[in-house]
């Protein structure tokens, strides 16, 4: 039985990571969907736990002694089968529901798809866990063994995600589940050998069909387009498709990156940027070079281009599978390709070696022109390149006369509504670092920032440079320049006017400031996009929202109107008011449940554990940008901590430790960790893993107390109920509305309140 419990924990976590990644591609890389996916996972586990409690509590004498083992075996077999159904649904459910493959989904749609894909699978997981607890009559042992299996799953995921596709991983988990199910059956039964033969046949047959299943289900994501190539890197799912007109498109995490049929707009955008600088020599290009931008830049008299593209697989895929890529200039001697994250590169500012090629770290230098070509802050992974903090790093590596350029979705005729709010948020973010901003209107608004006052961009100057540089183009001409700049003054005036209006973001600004810097209670000021309150990303989601009854913008606007969230109007008092309201409400709630303080502690620990895990994951994505490669390690460390915490409780329980005192100290420790995690977690990966391990140890210790003093199913359901609520609130409302700092403050205050009532009850 121990090996079966271990395998259940192993398979559960690996499948969770697989479906998290698959659904992220379905939801176009929207990290806020993480909370809704986890909610579905926890909800299904809770339903399975209740079902397991009902089935295992039957006491009729007519039930065979092997009833529970046979039921567990059947559950594991069903779980293995549903893995493939879930994988099919995660890729093909949008077309089935008549949802466009390229539509940005809203919370209701995300929750519906997540529930259909995940809930049936997790019902079997929850059912299996409760059945195991009933069979071995030792829930704490089952809890520890499952957590140990989950730890090894996190370690194994680092290899599997990098070298195997989702179908191969799911096939392996299905083999583990079915083998575990067969081990539970009575081997003396006459049909056992027949089942082994059938199992072996099914394993071989499914293996031969695995490649076709992977290809056919991947094709479902792209509708009428034909999938040419698909692979997973540590950063994203990369897919190349061929359209009906024989053009090619590149998708990253399900979102269109570029299309070869957009060569006209690429040509126009690139030359407008290069012509805006009188003499660009050294250029830094961040992303998007594989779209053909580099070949257009090379038409100007430049000396060198440093091209930052952390995902080496992306460049290899384009060069191999898009015929036109041979003319994109990626192999030119003036190009140095850095397979490195832009934020890390800019902090170290490595120089490129002579003769091009891959760069090596050496003496830093500055650039005449830095071009950010990532399309806009459409995810947390991308938003980190549109924040005030990143712009400040950019400013350090610009020459005194240098310029920084970036573009995002806009309109050049009428700029209003949510689009104006989105544009203004990014405009103000750039303006907070670069005092002199100029712009080029269009369907992609381009901002050009500098530290010094530079000559205004006028059509005459750009046309003259175009002729002097003798640029050969297929579509772009001097006549385009005047047309592009025709609405320049109108757009800049609209942005400047809107910059002075409060509430430009999808949620109201509530950042207290001390001496010009954000205080603990907040992460932004005046609607500026910041690392720990990514308003650029939230504004993008609000912009792309459908006019339905439930979308991100409606949820955030409703939350923003609640007085409990915003408190008083004074910026310096908002955090104090927020905390006062929250503590008052929690004290009243806890007061009513004072006689059941242990149950409240179980609920709050479930809420706390999932909330902090979501926050740690979001912080990892914000600071490092490759969450889904390291998410397995974060989960592994948390699960290892749970096991170690449970073992620690077993050891200390023998010493006659007071459980109330131990629980009180644990609650205080968790509150302190939540309060400080946003300051501790920056760009050091080790800090994330150690902090997650520490949190896991404390929560595992607490659950040792809970399982030793309460009914198994009671603890299981209360834990999942708190986790369900925490997953919904944290990712969907608290972080977008309050920011990371205030969310950590709220979570920590909940633990301090729980500790307070434990102390009161003891007295």
Summed up, what is this model?
This protein is of the alpha/beta class. The protein contains 27 helices and 14 strands.
Average pLDDT, all residues: 82
Q: Number of helical runs?
A: 27
Rg from C-alpha positions?
28 Å
Which class of secondary structure composition applies to the elements?
A: alpha/beta
By DSSP, the count of extended strands is: 14
What is the straight-line distance between the termini? 43 Å
Q: What fraction, in percent, of the residue positions are helical?
A: 55-70%
Strand content: 5-15%
Largest sheet: 8 strands, mixed
Q: Which spans of ≥5 residues are poorly predicted at pLDDT below 50?
A: 351-364, 502-525, 563-573
**Strand order, biggest sheet?**
8-7-6-5-9-10-12-11
Broad shape: globular
Structural descriptors:
eight-stranded mixed sheet, 27 helices, 14 strands, alpha/beta, four-stranded antiparallel sheet, globular, 763 residues
Give structural notes:
The longest helix has 51 residues, at 712-762. 61% of the residues lie in helices and 10% in strands. Strand 7 (335-338), helix 12 (342-348) and strand 8 (357-358) form a beta-alpha-beta unit. The chain has 763 residues and is of the alpha/beta class. Mean pLDDT is 82; it is low at 351-364, 502-525 and 563-573. It has an eight-stranded mixed beta sheet with strand order 8-7-6-5-9-10-12-11, with helices on both faces. The radius of gyration is 28 Å and the shape is globular.
Write the layout of secondary structure elements.
Layout lengths: L1 H25 L6 H24 L10 H30 L10 H30 L2 H25 L2 H19 L7 H17 L1 H10 L6 E7 L4 E6 L5 E5 L2 E5 L3 H13 L6 E5 L6 H5 L6 E5 L3 H10 L13 E4 L3 H7 L8 E2 L8 E6 L7 H4 L4 H9 L1 E12 L7 H15 L4 E5 L3 E7 L8 H10 L9 H7 L3 H12 L13 E2 L2 E2 L16 H9 L8 H9 L2 H4 L4 H22 L4 H28 L2 H27 L5 H22 L4 H25 L2 H51 L1
Helix pairs in contact: 1-2, 1-3, 1-4, 1-5, 1-6, 1-24, 2-4, 2-27, 3-4, 3-6, 5-24, 6-7, 6-8, 15-18, 15-19, 16-17, 20-27, 22-27, 23-24, 23-25, 23-26, 23-27, 24-26, 25-26, 25-27
